Amino acid sequence: MNILITAATSAEAHKLKNQFAHDNVILGDYTELPGFMKIIKLPSPASMSYAHEMLTLCLDEGIKRLYALKEDEWRLLNEAKQLFAEYGIELVHRP
């Protein structure tokens, strides 16, 4: 299963990633990151179309489960939870 974990620069994201040995885990963040880190650039929660941008990214990457580790991300994604569910994408909150 393809899993996306946000807040890739946090220790919590890396700890969570290690729990999924048999899945393809992608780390992402919307902050500026060095290119060598193998972390994908996520849309900013400040964007008016954040949830739709995240949905598009999930569909493009084949993501089936998204762990939102930052409160601002979770709040916006949770508002669109039904939309993600329609595409078979599970949203998980990890405060």
What would you say this structure looks like, in words?
- With 95 residues, the protein is an alpha/beta fold.
- It has a single domain (2-93), classed as 3-Layer(aba) Sandwich (Rossmann fold).
- It is 36% helix and 23% strand.
- The chain contains four helices and five strands; from the N terminus they run βαββαβααβ.
- It has helices at 11-17, 50-61, 71-79, 81-86, and strands at residues 2-5, 24-29, 40-41, 63-68, 90-93.
- Strands 3-2-1-4-5 form a five-stranded parallel β-sheet, sandwiched between helices.
- Strand 1, helix 1 (11-17) and strand 2 (24-29) form a beta-alpha-beta unit.
- The longest helix has 12 residues, at 50-61.
- It starts with a strand and ends with a strand.
Tell me briefly what this model is.
The chain has 95 residues and is of the alpha/beta class.
> Radius of gyration, rounded?
12 Å
- Indicate the CATH topology: Rossmann fold
How does the overall form come out from the CA principal axes?
globular
Main sheet?
Answer: 5 strands, parallel
- Helical region count? 4
The strand line-up of the biggest sheet is 3-2-1-4-5
Mean pLDDT: 93
CATH architecture: 3-Layer(aba) Sandwich
* SS-derived structural category: alpha/beta
Supply the CATH class: Alpha Beta
List the uncertain runs: none
Strand tally: 5
Strand content: 15-25%
- Secondary-structure element pattern, one letter each: EHEEHEHHE
Helix content: 25-40%
In total, how many domains does the architecture comprise? 1
